[in-house]
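This section describes the prediction task in plain terms. A model, or a person checking by hand, is given the sequence of a single protein chain and must write out its three-dimensional structure as a string of tokens. No templates, partner chains or ligands are provided. The sample shown here is typical of the held-out split.
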Amino acid sequence: MNNSFDFCVVDEILSSYKCSQQAIIAILQDIQEHYRYLPEEVFPYLASKLGMTEAGIYSIATFYENFSLEPKGKYVIGVCLGTACYVKGAQQIIDKFCEILGIRPGETTADGMFTIDALRCIGACGI
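The expected answer:
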């Protein structure tokens, strides 16, 4: 475990949920909201504090698409590339964002401000 990582924020989050295993998803959401991703250092720490296995927590974090193990930008630009959106020009939209920001889907700008995510159907086809 990285001893230079400051766990104060994680401890506050754990305390707000009374270190409850049942709140693991909410705990992970709050940690990600603070750091903009789930740092690898939190997995063994959470496992020891919650009495869970590190693998169990990691499996939850990797099962749900809204969790990220890589840092995200302050602003995440999600472009749906589902069939209906693709047909309506979504690829050109994501290509323009990539051109303007100088990154590819899944990447974050060097200043940490923007991340572009290519999404599967988000259920907004009618819009």
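For orientation: The beta strands are 75-80, 114-119.
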